[in-house]
Each structure stands twice: as structure tokens, then as C-alpha cells.
Write the C-alpha cells for this entry.
Amino acid sequence: MTPLMEADDLAVDYQAPGRRVRALDGVDLTVARGETVGIVGESGSGKSTLGSAIGRLLSQNAQLSHGALTIDGESLFDLSAVQMRRVRREKLGFVFQDPIGSLDPTKRVGAQLRLALRGRGASLDVTGQLERVRLADPRRIARAYPHQLSGGMAQRVAIAMAMATEPELLVADEPTAALDSQVRDDVSTMIFALAAEAGTSILWLSHDLAAVGRRCGRVAVMYGGRVVEDGPASEVLARPAHPYTHALANSAPASAAPGERLQPVPGRPPVLTGPSPGCAFADRCGFAIERCRSERPRPVRIKAQSVLCHRAEELAGSAALAVHGVGSAVATTPPVPLGGDRS
Amino acid sequence: MRHTNRTGLSIACGVTAAVLITAGCSGGDTSTDDTSTPAESEPGYLAVADSSLPAGGELDVQTHIDASVATGLDPQLADLAAAWQLMSLVYETLVTVGPEFEIEPALAESWDMPDDTTYVFHLRDDVQFSNGRAMTADDVVGSLERQLELGSVWTGQLGPVESVTAVDEHTVEVALAEPYTPFLAALANVPASILPMREIEDGTLNPETEMLGTGPFVVADHRQDVSWRFERNDDYWKQDEPGVDAVNVQIVPQEAARIAALQDGSASLVTLGNVDSPALLQGASDVSVLTQANTDFYYLMLNSQWEESPFTDPRVRQAVNMAIDRAQIADVALAGLGHPTGVTPAGLPGACEPGDLPSGMADLDAARELLAEAGAENLTFELAIFSTDPAPAVAQVIQQSLEEIGVTVEIEQLEETSWNGKVYGEAPGRFDAALSWFAGYADPGMVTKWWNPDAAGFNLGFMESDAELTGLIDTVNSVPQGPERDAAITDLCAAVEDDAQMVPLVTRPSMVGYRADAVSVSLHADEGYGNPLRLLSEARMVRAE
Amino acid sequence: MTNHDGTRDGAHLRAHSGAAGNSSPVLELDEVTVTFSSGLFRREHVHAMRGVSLRVEPGETLGLVGESGSGKTTASMVALGLRRPSSGAVRFEGAPLPRRRRELAGRMQVVLQHPQWSLDPRMWIGHSVAEPLVALGHSQPGDAVRAMLEEVGLEPSFADRYPHELSGGQRQRVAVARALITRPRFIVFDEAVSALDVSVQAQILNLITDLQAEFGFSALFISHDLGAVRYVAHRIAVMRHGEVVETADTETFYTTPVHEYSRQLLEAL
Amino acid sequence: MSGARPGDVSGDGTSGGGAPATYPSTSEERRGVRMRIAHLTGWLRRLDWLSRCGLFCLLVLVLAALGSMVNLGGDPAEIAGGRLQPPGPDHWLGTDNLGRSLLPRLLEGIGVTLLLSSIAVLVTAVLSTALGIVAGYLGGMVNNLVMRVVELLYAFPSIVLAILVAAVVGPGRPAAMAAIVLVTIPLMTRLVRTASTSVAQRDYVTSAVVSGVRLPRILIRHVLPNVAGTIAVQGTYALSVGILVEGGLSFLGFGVQPPQASLGVLIQEGGVYMVAAPWLIITPGVVLILAILSINVVGDGLRDRLEPRETRSLR
Amino acid sequence: MRLFLWWLRRAVSAVATLAGVSILVFLALRAMPGGFAETILGPFASAEQQRELAERYGLDDSAFVQYWRWLQAAIGGDFGTSMISREPVASELGARLPVTGQLAVMAVLTALFIGVPLGVLTALRARPDGGGALGRLVSGLGVSLPEFVLGSIVVFVFSRYALGLSVGGYVPFADDPAGNLTAMILPAAVLSVFAISATARTTRDAVLNVLVEPYVTAAVARGESPAFIIRHHILRNAATPVVVLLSTITAYLLGGAIIVEYLFNLPGIGSYVVQAVGRRDYAVVQAGVLLAATVFIALNVIADLVVGLIDPRLGVTAEGRSM
């Protein structure tokens, strides 16, 4: 059976006057039905570009350089505009970072929710839909304008819109980054619960490795426009196989025990102008060798993970990539079930 | 608003001479078809309305400027040619001016001069004001006395009137203190209009805001600066006049808009200000443009009273006077439609010959010599002008010709009101030189009165009276028509240029365009009071069968 | 470029405890209330701070945590003397804040949130760093600037670059250098690392702790990120709805938070 | 966090940095000059072709104006030929109603119009910048006061305002300049103020305040350079408005006074002769439109350059 | 209450602005060169006439007294009498307002119905790589065509060749609707060239700004069609700057489409006031400018109200975050 979503050597460039910036540099990623995948990466890693590419929502100066992206076997970049709209309507759902900005400021919440539900077989019961995302007093909220809502409320409304049609894949681009920490948990929990109920797969984009690891079944770590490590969340968190994943885990202040010194990643993330000649992390990597700079790594299998590192196998054998403060980072709540036998 | 033709007043004395001046009308007569103006070759006329056409219809006219300014609609206070144009449709005078500047009967059907200071006017007995009341000698006496009491400049133009008395219901006698040659000419202009004195005295008419006259039309509607509607006066005393039922006048300051209206037929008759308009309208079908020679002329004020002016030295003034190339002004700035003139307007019977004057000889060496004598070789002065066409062009030609004798002219162009303030607002006026024009009127002596600032007080700010000049002016205005007067006029012209505080330049033409397919009009070849609408009541509409 | 120098580890943790006993606080907020009111006629009062009392001891870093809208940014403005409290007192080095800003010049500095706006984009890095010294009347700060840049792990040649040539992390280093160049007694870090990528954040956090050990300044470290606060602060104050709900030593707070809200925050970490 | 877009990778500067006051050594100053030149050329390269065409047109116009100063094409005031002659070998652009050659008149007109508008806009820029920066930075009462005055000017119909000025000062170049200044000041002040307000909230300004930097220095070293882009863009638009106002005023007879030529004067004079001598209005008309268009296009280019925007399709 | 206070504040600021405008105009008029009576009556008027005029209009009093007198009368609704026509200024302006108003309305409606769609279209076709330069050129040309050049050409062409539309010849709509329209179409068209281009440019900018808003992306992501998104999300959100621009254009046109009125000889307010400046007809200038300023302020208020209706965040009664 074909995977729900598959990116195959996907490369996307942004064209600016006088220069080109490579955002995706050959992404390989699949999402199976019912799976929950977290994409972790810092700004510039390409995760948002990947998320946008899935809905073909890239800005106009973005260009597909090579590779393919398929949803349910349909190659997105070959679809007509009409076909693409059908895919978006029937198979995809999106939740974005800015909850209030994602709602039309000039329309009452109820009106725009109704507009979004119209003609797609979803229930037109606005109150019901708002109740589904656990909004108290849905009637009052339906009458409110977006700017009168808190971020958490607005994000719930946006989720209600995205999930009303029970899409096959929900792309959530940092949906909780703009929310206060208390609300974050509730919102994420709700998204995962709704998705589980509807059998929707989730692609969760985030910069917070630990948070994603707690929720998702699988984690893919992006760096320099590629997925450098991809595997079950618990494995990636506990036993990162890529030096970058390791560095990322160790640099989060929350991961440090009291009195423990943080291990920052030296240097700064790259801005690619074309295909990276070697491993994009090589300049910041404590383990880099000459080969890392000149030869693009190919995926290797390290236990459950797929890793883009020339030295992955040797490092896996050593203790070099041990995560400190592991205890605090490991999920305290069990991951949401993977959706049974559907995959 | 740019075309406010502010006109000087002047007095004309009775003119009987009938010297026909035709030079003025040759340049602009571009009449393209002669079917509607069968009598156009009649002497003194540019066009004669075809009286065989049926009366009736409405005539659409466009003109530059409205009649009423701050003085209101009182004809006796009117000092703008534009005001005279429109007011003459309603008000009439005892006498009027014929095609060759001869004085013709109007409200007075005849007059006698028992001696050279007494005039006896025999009034028509069929004249009514448009309210239906018959005009009487009392109206005439009252009107003339009113003008004499107003103390306006026109009062001076009427001359040394001693008394006005009603001899009987239809006879009025005017006694002068001394002979005054331009008296009849002065009576022939709008400020000498006969008003309905009974209505004015009993307060039922306010002449400042309403018009009630004996003329061919009555005012049906007036929107200041927008439009007038004149309707025929059914009781008008002239037979077969007016020839149209109504005249709609639109006030259109912009020349191009008037030309446009004429071309697209939305106006049948327009007054024009640009000397090139006749040429511009050459190709337009059914459009005729007639250029009326005027006695109006441009003159230059050279300020002798302001200490900072370079013209306190008469030699500098004379040099400038000599160096200005009048012919070039006429040809270039006025497109050949104007003519060099002395102080007596060229074209007016009895006027002096401008070619014999120092200005006509254009002796540049003499001019340079005068400047050198005065120690003013590298003279620079400012010339204040107002922006109404073609004054800027005239100024620029002056600038060019004075460059020949090494004089630099800096032109300062002002809007009309500011110009007035600068030139007339204070004494001494704070300017070097200024350009303007006077209406030349119907008698050569009238306008010369402005060269005596003691009489024409508005000039006191920049000139002083000259005893010799004043004497010559008085002579010209009191000596009857004849060789003696001609000699005095010649001397006067020379004296003006010698004095050179105000130097005459060129005459100023006026243009009238009309649709030959819409209207048949009458127009004098020459005009002394800047009134191209003088014969409007003769106009007849042409109807396409 | 980074300070991987492990020898300073933990040194700062002891820095304040010795000093706290006998000297007055560097900064003290005493029952500070800040009320925003708006409108010409209408007086609508919003309490941004309600009876907030805070103390920063010499050599100490006080961490201030809270959600957006909790009043912590207002607290920072009050501490910096940029906003006068509606009631309550602010004392700096034992004395009320002077009316004239310049009297504080050089003794108090700030590092703010946005890397892209922390430095004037039209100014050379060298000028930016030198600015506080220039304000104090120094005319030749070039050497001091170069030295300070090295201190924050940047090459001295950065002095003649423009901010846009630097990464976000480098800009925050420059901001720290600028704050430290006058050797101030007190620095406010207002969300100073929040906008940085995780991998870079740690660099700046380490830099701050290292420099504090070296220069001994006191600091108010404001952030919504409990993890970062916990890492650099000696004591932590938690703000909510304009009030301080809990103040505790970091260790105590970490292990046994008292207030319900503090517990929630820790759980979400 | 939307990937590497050109806009957010680096927010680089528009003009060169602030003038070095104390810090760099002479070699660094030299480097500064080099950087500025590099900046400028970089700038030109990043303008699109349309804006470059606009710049080129403006350059040509400026050269033409300079040409008029050395009487290129002849003395503009001289009556050099017959009246209303069409363009020909003697008079390339024909002659006007006084027989003056149009070419030198046109060059003079370009010079007068450009010079006058530029000076006026410069004055506007200085005043607006001063007012806008102070109002925007200080806010409060100062801001209210400045904005009230600005609104007052705004509420005047612009041409009536210009005409009133012309009537008070007396028509001519000073009146035209004053009118342009008064007409362009409100918008520019508003926009500079808005920009200054946002600069005032920037972290580097707060840092400077905390560091004890004095107000004048903050305004000059921080606020001014950072609103310079706004000033430049608005300056170009103000210049095009200035040319329009000059033209309109001169056209109505309140601006530049003949015999001096300006583009507005030439068009006014030529308007009447449209039928008989169309070259008298067409040439100056085209030049005027070209000048305004070029300036607008350059302004658009500048703005696009300063505020690069992402475009999106709905497909 | 909130609404009332909003209105109160607007009213106070409007009165302040109007007072400022009237003082400025008053001072400007008094600062004009040339004495009063001499310049108004011209050189040939007698001293008697000058005295009478000065007396009638109180021109000899101090400026302060004159202003105070004017203000008192103005508050009572009496804006004085024209020195030229001797008619009350209010009725004169009232007679001319419909002309200017019609011109403004025609031009602004044209701008609305042509400029807005044009702006939306060009925004949707905008490309990041400097494409659409041609569109920029065309819209740039539209705002670069001075009325006095375009108007002169139109006057020439339409008067020279009978094309069915008249140049000048204004008649009130009530008298002759067809004649009125044939006279008004050309001047309105000349004015609308600028209005259309400016509207199109503003609309394009506004739409481009809205296009990158997250809620548009969200709508695209939901699979909505472009037509749907334009209708339901873009038009309304992009309307704010367009409304503000249109109100500014209307105010500008009502304040005097002077050049067009002048070229086409329309008896509108702008040309009237300009003429009055030339003739020092103080009361007319004073009232005319005040009228324009009032219109400007009123349109601003209307624009604010409309903007508030369009975007509740910017409204008069916009509530803060209430939940």
C-alpha cells in the first residue's frame, strides 16, 4: 500500500533578486496512514517549507528544484489547480502557528467557521464543531471576532476548521509555539485526540525536540534542508544517532539538571545557496571528518533510526552521543496510540 | 479671471470728422463665408446683420468676465469694458457712436448747439423703460446730475458741465462752463446711461443690484461669474429690434474653453483675447473671426516719483521710449493686429501720426547717447505687468528691444489685484515701470486727459504734471475740430514722448468669433469703448431650413 | 568562539550567597503598582503590576518568569526606570531612581529580546558597543570595544561590520558586550534568549553565566521560558496577572514549588 | 519560521551607516567610503529595469537642465525666428508665439521645474523629518501638537492652499516653492512620524536610553538613519507631487512667471496653440509626464527595495 | 458611552481644526499685498467709493475685530456676503456645490468600479521577480498624467472633432439630465484617470498585503477557490486603505477640482474660490476653504466609521480582548 505522504529527494529553492536560497535539499520522508510524525528543526532547517510544500502553499518565489511529493500516490506538483484544491479539501488539514492571524479578522468566528464547513459534507452545526474542540460557551465564541479571543481559543477554532472534514493528514506547523505554556498542553492533547478519533495522520512541525518526542510516534530531525535522523520518538530522544540530534537535545536549557553546564552547539546554522556538497552540519560537528565536508551522506540504518551521517555507525558504537539529563526528557505521558492496524 | 480687461476711462469730445481708419481691420478678418453677412463691405462695418432673416430665437454668447465687480451693477460707476458690454444691452445713452466714430442719435433724436457751450437735446417721445414707464426729461436730467454728483472719474470725463435743465418733457439743456470738444463722445458711453430716476428715488430700484433701462433687453437671470440671461424688451423703441428673443451669456474666463465652445457650436458668439485666435480658428467650419480695431492702447508707466526708480531722470525715460520697437510689439506680440500709436489713439479720426514721433524713428544711437549722458549705461529695471494676455508678450518684446541699448528688463508678472495694489496702492508707487492699457474712446482728446495727474489722480503715485503738457491737453479738449486742433494734437503727442512718464505703445485689438451658420451679426470695424456687443440687438439667428 | 571553559562551572552559584548578608540590594521594588490608563476623558485602569516587591542582591541573578501579559515586561521597564510606578518605590543601590536618566548612565544596562532589533542596523558593531561609553564621555573607546568583543567570544574585527552581517546569536553577543562595556552593577535581560534557536540559546546562556562570574554584576533575567530562567537564575520570581505569586531560590523552586501556578509551569517544562 | 525567505535572512541597510564620530580610525573611514560606494552600486543593481529606466530618464533631464545653464540650444528669451514655426533645422522644436525657439525654452523649463521642486522637497524633507522624528519619538503632547498642525494643513484643499500662498507671497518661484512645501509636508510628516514611532520602540533605542545616551544623539544617530528609507521613498513621491503642484500653479498663473519658462508655464502657453502649433504643448507635456513618471517609478522601485514583499498566488 | 466619547473627541478635534483653518485663511487674506479698497475697486474708483466699501465690509477695523465679527456671524450660520455679487456666500456656495459634488461622485465611482477590480487583478498577477513592471508602468503613468495636460488635450480633441460630448456648457442635472451628463463626462473622465490609477495602486498594495496573511493561506489550505477567497476574505480585508484613499480623493475633489473646473468652465466651488482669492473677495474665500475643510473632516469621520464596519479591530466601538 502506498504511504499517505511521501517526499522523495525533494528540493525547493527560494529565488530572491540576485540570489537563491536552498530551503529543502533533498528531503526523503514518508508518513503512513494513522501515523503521528514530529518534524523537529530550528529556523532555517526547512521544516516549514516542507509543511507548506505538502499543501503546495509555498510563496511564489519558491521553486521545486527536483524530487517529488505525493499524497496518496498523487504527485502534488503535477496536479492542476483544481485537482490540488480537491486534494486540500479532501485529504489535508492545516493548523498554523499564529492562531489569531489564521482567522479572518473581519468576520465573526461562527460565520467564518460556517463558510469553511460549507459544501464539504461536514456538519454545519457551528456550535457542535466548537464544542468538539472543547470550547466552553461556543455560542458566545461564535459571535465573537477573532481579535476578541485568546490565542488558545483561536487555535481551537482553527483546529475545528481543519478537522471538520476529517482529513487524512493534518499538518500542524508549530501550532502551540505562540501559546502560553499551560494552554499548550491542552491544545496538543486535543489535536492528537481528535486525530486519533478521525484516523487522521499528523505531521507536527516543531523546534522543541522534547515536546514533540512526548506526543509523536515518530520523530524526523531536519537540518540544512534534509531529514538527518528519522525514527521512533523514544529512540531518537533517548539514543540520538546523529550528532546534530544529540547536540540539540543537550543544548536545551530545560534538559540540564541543576548545576549542570549546557553543551551548546558551536557556530550557527547554515544558509544554503545550492545543494550542500557534504553534510550541512559538518562545520559545527565535533565529529566531522574530511569526508563529511565533501560527500553528501546517504541514509544509514542505526537500529530503528534512519540517519544521514557518514560516521553514524562508529558513533553509535561509542558513548559519544549519550544524552544527559535523559530522565527529564523522556516522555512522562505515553505516546498516543498509533492507530492500530490501519498502517 | 485672467481676462479682466480693466479699462481706463476717458472722455471723448464730440466728433464729427469721419476719417475712416481701415488699417486696423485688415489683419484679422478671416470671415470664411459671406452668405450671412451680405453687407459686410459697407464702410465702417466688419459685418452687417441680415435683416431679412426672421426675428426670434436665442443667441448663446460667451465672454471673458462678468460685468459686476465690487462696484455692483450701477452703470454710472462701471469702469470695465466688460461691464460696458453687458450693461449696454440694458441701458442706453443720449447719443451713440457710429461706425466711423461719428456721434449718432440714440435716446436724443437730435441736438442743437445754440452756442459753443450749450447743448439742447430733443428726446425721443417713444422711449419706455422696460417696466413700461415712459422716459422723460426728468430721467435724463436726474441721470446726468447723478453722474456729476458721483464724483467718479467719469464725472470728470463729462467735462465742465455747469447745469442740466429740463426745458420741457422732451427737451434737456446742458450748459458748459467753457467749450469742451469731447462732450458728446463722453455722453455716448455706458457711464452716461439714462437711468429710471423716479424708481431710484422712490427706492423701488437699487441700481447696484438690479438693472432697469430703456435698452433692447431685460435681465431675466444672473448668476455672478456664471451666466446671464437677457430677454427681449418687447417695448423697445427701435423697430425690428432686438432681432433675437433672448441672449444667454456665459462667463468663460478660459480662452481655450471659449474657442472650444465656438467650435462645437455650444456658443454662437464669443469674445476672444488671444491675438492668435483668428489664426487658430482658421480651419474651423462655419466659424468666422472678426478683428475689431480698437482705440485702446498699451502704454508704459515709467515711475518718476519713487526715488529708487531709475526713471527720475527724464533722459533715461526718453531713451527707453525711443528704443522700444513698437512695430515689433505689433507684429510679434500682437500678431500684426495692433498698431504703433501716439497718445492720441492711432485709428481715431484726428489722431497724430505715430511715425513722426521719436518713438517711430527708433534711433537707437540717440537712445544710447541719452543713457550715457544720464550715466545709466547698464540700466536694469523691473517691469510690473499683469498676466492678462497679451500683456506678457508685449512685455517680453519690450525686454528684447531694450536689450539692444544695453538695458535689462526684469519682468514681474502679477495677478491683476496685486498689480493694482502695487501700482496704485500707495504714493509714491514702489515700482520702476509698469505696463497697462487704456481704452482710447471715441475722441482723440479724451484719453490724453490721463497725462495730467492732477486731474487723473490715480496716476499721482508715479508721475507729476507738466505745465506744457497740461496746457496742450486743455487746448486739444477745448479747441473745436479743425486745423488748429490737429496742430495741437501733433504737439501734444511729441510733448508726451518728451515727458515720457507714460509712453504710448501700440493699439490693442479685440476679436469676436461667431458661427456664421447660426447667427448673422453686425460689427463696427472700429470701436472706441471696447464694446463688441454694441450692435448685438441687430443680430439675427440663421435657421437651417 | 564559544566558552567551553569548564573551570568556571558552578562558580556563580556561590557568588551571591556570601555577599547577600551585609550589603543592600542593588535593586529593590517595593510594593510597586503600575496602572495603565488611556483615553482623554475615559479613565480605564489596567493593572499591569499590583503590589510587586522584588529584590536583586549584589552579584545575584533574579529570574522573573511569567506568561505573556503577566506584567513581567512592565516590571522590566520599571526596574530600568523607563516607567514610573503609579505607587510604590523603586530603589537602585539604595537610593530612589534619579529623575534624570543620565545619572544612571553606565551603571545599569539592558539586553533585549529581538536579535534583529537589538542593534541599530545602520550602525557599525563597534559604534553600537562603544555607545554606552561615549555616552559617559569616553572619546577613544576603540580598545575597550575590541577587548569587550573578545570577551563575548567575537573577533575584534567584528567592530566594523554591520548587524546584518551577523547571525542572531552573534548579535545577542554584541548586545551583551554593549551592556557590559561600562562594567555596570546591574543588567536587565528581558527575554534575551527567547528568539534564538535552541542550539544558539545555550551559547548565550553560558556566556551570561560566565561573564557574571567574571564581572560580578547583578541581573534581572526575565523570560517566559522557565528552562532558561532556571538555568541562569539564583532566585526565581513567578509573576501572574501582575502579581508575584512565588519567590524562591532556584533549587528550592525546582524541587518544591509552593504555588499551584509554579507547579503547572514546571510540569509544562 | 517560514523557511529562508529573502526578506528575513538579513535586513540590510539602505544607505551607508552613520558618520563615524569617535570610533573608527582613518583606515576604517576609508573602508567606510568604499563600502558606501559598493552599497550604492549594489543598490542600483537591485533596482529593477523599470526603475533603472526611470533613473536614466531623470539623469537625462538633469543633464538637459544643466545644459540650459550654458545656454545650450540658444538664449531662451531671444526672439530668434518667425512666430509659431514648426520644428525644423533652425529650431529643432519649433518656435512659440513670440518667435522664441522652444528648445532652449524647454531646457530652461526643465531646469527651473526640477530645481524649484527639488529645493522645495528638500525643505519639506528637512522640516518633515525634524517634526516627524520629534513627534514620533517623543509622542504625547508634542506629537499631538505636531499632528494637529499637520491635520490643519491636510484639511486645506491643496491647490487653494498653494494659491493662497502665491497670493500672499506674490506669484513666482518663492510662492511655488512655499506652496510645494506646504502641500507635501503633511503626508511626509505623518509617515516619518509613524516610522519614528516604530523605531522608538526598537530594542536598540531602549538600550541606548538605558545607557544614558542623550536625546539629540538618539534622534540623530538612531532614529534618523532608520527612517531615512521612508524619507527617501516619500521624498521621491513628494518630488513628483512638487512638480505637479508647480505645473498646476504655473498653469493657473500663480507659479513661475514668464518670461522665465517652467514646464507648467510652457504647457499653459502652449495650450492655446494646440491646433495651430501642437508642438508647443506636446513637447513640454511629454517631458513633464516623463519626469513625473520617472520619479514615481524610481520611488516604487525604492519602496519595493526597502520593503520587499512576498507574493502569493491563490492557486 | 464609549461611542459618545468617541464622537465628542472627534467633534472637539474637528472644531479645533476648523478654527485653525479659518484663522489661517483670515490671516493669509489680510497678509495679501495691496490695500483693500484700492485693490478691490481698481484705480479708477473715487475716494468716496473706497470709503464706502471699507465701511460696508468693516475693512478698517483691526484684524482681530474683523475676525471676531466674522466668527460670531459664522456661528450663527451667516458666512457673510460676497463683495462682488452682493449675495450671501452660503447661497452662492450652495449653488456651486452640486457641480463639484457631481464631478467628485462621478470620478470616485469610476475609480471604485474600475480601479478596484484592476488593483485586485494586478495584485493576483504580481510576480516576485519584478514581473508586472508593465502594469506598474501603466498605473504609474495614470498617476503621472497632470490634469492640466490631459485636460488640455481632451478639450482640444473634443472641441475640434464632434465626438458627441460637449466641452463646457454645463447645465444642472435637474434641468436637462442628458445635457448635464454630456457636459460632465469629460471632466469627470479627466479626473478619474488619476483616481482610477491611485485606487488601483492602493488596492493592489492592499491585496498583496492581505494575500500573505495567514488566514488567506489557511483558506487556500482548506482548498477554497481563488474566487471564493477573493470574495469572502480578500475584498473586505483589503478595503481599509482603499476606503481611506477614496475618502481622501473625494475630499480633494470636493475641495476643488480647480484645474478641471477651469478648463471645462464648470461653475464649481474650486474655480470660484480661486477667482475670489484673485479679487480679494474675503468672505467667499473664507467660507469656501472652510467648506472644503469641513468636507475633509466629515469624510475622514465617515471613512473611520466605514473602516470600523469593515474591520472590527479598528472600529469606533472596538472592544478590547474581551474573553
Residues 198-215 of chain C form the longest helix (18 residues). Chain C is about 35% helix and 25% strand. The CA atoms of residues 173 and 204 of chain C lie 7 Å apart. The first strand of chain C starts at residue 27 and ends at 38.
